């Protein structure tokens, strides 16, 4: 992978991971027209979840924010896979939807998903600024603390 976005990843000390294998009947990302929609990305590192549990109980908000950034990096990898690695074709990250497995008393979902939003801004610059939802849920697949999906607009 070469280009402007690849240079930013290198400057940030990041490397795109292998795209996580689906845990059910779906694909990691789909292109329709000039949009790529990712499936929900968990914070897999080396094929495994580094932590499980509810944010605000077993997982701190700060740790969950780091996990959200990992989800974002995994989502970028899924986008890159459909673009043969050419992330310079990303015109804009249009939308981010973040899910936070939350203890019933936890209300800091937006702060957790900031981990993903901040990283996308660092990777893509102005093109990484997006619309967003941050949703608290009772449980996520594999008891993951966070899950993230993105929609990216791409140039032909």
UniProtKB/TrEMBL annotation:
Extract the InterPro entries matched here.
Answer: Endoribo_LPSP/chorism_mut-like, RutC-like_sf
Q: Which organism is it from?
A: Cellulomonas denverensis
Highest rank taxon of the organism = Bacteria
Q: What is this protein called?
A: RidA family protein
Q: Which Pfam families match?
A: YjgF_endoribonc
Any idea where the Endoribonuclease L-PSP/chorismate mutase-like domain is? 7-153
